[in-house]
């Protein structure tokens, strides 16, 4: 495996560490600086920043190169971490929202690490390259909660130390990026007829059954996971669990999200992306069922949240990574930037909306009913996959990249 893939994996770990930290502490900071109704607003603005960055990030990296784009994204994240420190010192909620928005922009650029890894790896190792980069999130599972726990170590301002540590992680990522050598755009493209073919209209690309399956699976995986995970700190606090229990639960949830990445690529190669997506939806449904058992007191509180989020993390992995593999089959080299931009925008808009809705929904509906209403969403990729298989069997004409 090329050194660039390994370094991208470390950058991914540092990136996700910041994401986890925000998920663990931002709802608590929001409740502290504003009110419970606005507790998940900082997470939502982070996702809003990510959503705003998706299309520009793909176009900027296509024009300037992957590495320069990643450096720009890290600088945005570093600025956001510094602004968060100032906001916490001043106890200013609006300033903190601006800080998480900037961090979200940095995360938006970093979401392209997985595509850069595929381009840097030989064709026969591309699935493994995605898995290795996403597997960097396992390190983040320990960095992120550790940063959250250090929040009480500095002065009397809660969570101030977390964002000082976050800024340090972004500085380390910038240092790693200085050593990464990525292939030029022209050398990363395959030499075939498609490489020289003119780009098709975006609407033609988006209507492909394979693209629809890829983007829907990623949207469902991210949406269900993000809504349940963002609401978990509030639900656990409401159930009387302390912050240490919340941080530990989130930590092992993130391990479950990223640890399977080391072998998900092999499973996709062996069983197919469709089979893995169905399996991922099954794990998501099992996680939602745990919430119902918690509500009925069939499971102990802390253990129930822990088991539910473990299943939730595995479900996300088995839907999102195969969806990434499918996406690479939907475009020609000349269509890559626009196709990736459309996918990232749709997926992370879903993340922004679910993060914004998590707080009000868990307060108004309750933990159990919220999870129950997510069940139909988990069935959508399965239904689309079944329709796609029927279309293929009927030999319906379709345009594939």
UniProtKB/TrEMBL annotation:
The chain crosses the membrane at residues 44-62, 69-90, 96-117, 129-147, 159-180, 210-230, 250-269, 276-299, 305-324, 345-363, 369-387. Keywords: Membrane, Transmembrane, Transmembrane helix. It comes from the Bacteria. Pfam families: MFS_1. InterPro entries: MFS (IPR011701), MFS_dom (IPR020846), MFS_trans_sf (IPR036259). SUPFAM superfamilies: MFS general substrate transporter. Residues 1-395 form the Major facilitator superfamily (MFS) profile domain. PANTHER family: MAJOR FACILITATOR SUPERFAMILY PROTEIN (PTHR23534:SF1), MFS PERMEASE (PTHR23534). This is MFS transporter.
């Amino acid at each position: 495996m090329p050194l660039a893939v390994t370094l991208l994996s470390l950058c991914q770990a540092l990136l996700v560490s910041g994401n986890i930290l925000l998920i663990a502490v931002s709802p608590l900071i929001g409740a502290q600086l504003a009110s419970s109704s606005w507790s998940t607003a900082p997470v939502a603005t982070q996702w809003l920043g990510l959503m705003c960055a998706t299309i520009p990030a793909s176009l900027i990296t296509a024009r300037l190169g992957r590495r320069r784009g990643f450096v720009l994204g890290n600088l945005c994240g570093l600025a956001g971490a510094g602004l968060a420190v100032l906001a916490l010192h001043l106890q200013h909620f609006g300033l903190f929202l601006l800080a998480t928005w900037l961090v979200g922009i940095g995360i938006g650029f970093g979401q392209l690490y997985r595509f850069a890894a595929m381009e840097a790896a030989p064709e026969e190792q591309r699935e493994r390259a995605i898995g290795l980069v996403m597997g960097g999130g396992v390190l983040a599972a320990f960095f992120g909660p550790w940063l959250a726990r250090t929040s009480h170590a500095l002065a009397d301002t809660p969570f101030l130390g977390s964002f000082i540590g976050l800024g340090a992680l972004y500085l380390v990522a910038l240092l790693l990026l200085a050593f990464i050598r990525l292939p030029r755009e022209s050398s990363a493209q395959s030499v075939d007829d498609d490489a020289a073919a003119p780009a098709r209209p975006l609407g033609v690309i988006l209507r492909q059954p394979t693209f629809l399956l890829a983007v829907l699976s990623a949207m469902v995986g991210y949406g269900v996971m993000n809504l349940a995970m963002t609401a978990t700190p509030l639900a656990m606090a409401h159930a009387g669990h302390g912050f240490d229990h919340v941080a530990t639960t989130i930590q092992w949830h993130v391990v479950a999200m990223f640890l399977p990445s080391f072998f998900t690529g092999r499973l996709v190669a062996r069983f197919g992306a469709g089979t893995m997506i169905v399996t991922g939806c099954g794990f998501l449904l099992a996680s939602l069922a745990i919430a119902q058992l918690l509500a009925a007191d069939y499971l102990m509180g802390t253990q129930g949240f822990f088991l539910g989020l473990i299943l939730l993390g595995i479900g996300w992995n088995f839907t999102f990574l195969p969806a990434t593999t499918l996406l690479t089959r939907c475009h020609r080299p000349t269509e890559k930037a626009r196709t990736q931009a459309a996918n990232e925008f749709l997926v992370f808009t879903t993340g922004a909306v679910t993060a914004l809705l998590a707080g009000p929904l868990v307060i108004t509906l309750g933990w159990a009913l919220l999870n129950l209403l997510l069940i139909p969403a988990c069935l959508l990729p399965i239904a689309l996959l079944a329709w796609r298989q029927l279309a293929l069997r009927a030999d319906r004409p379709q345009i594939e990249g």
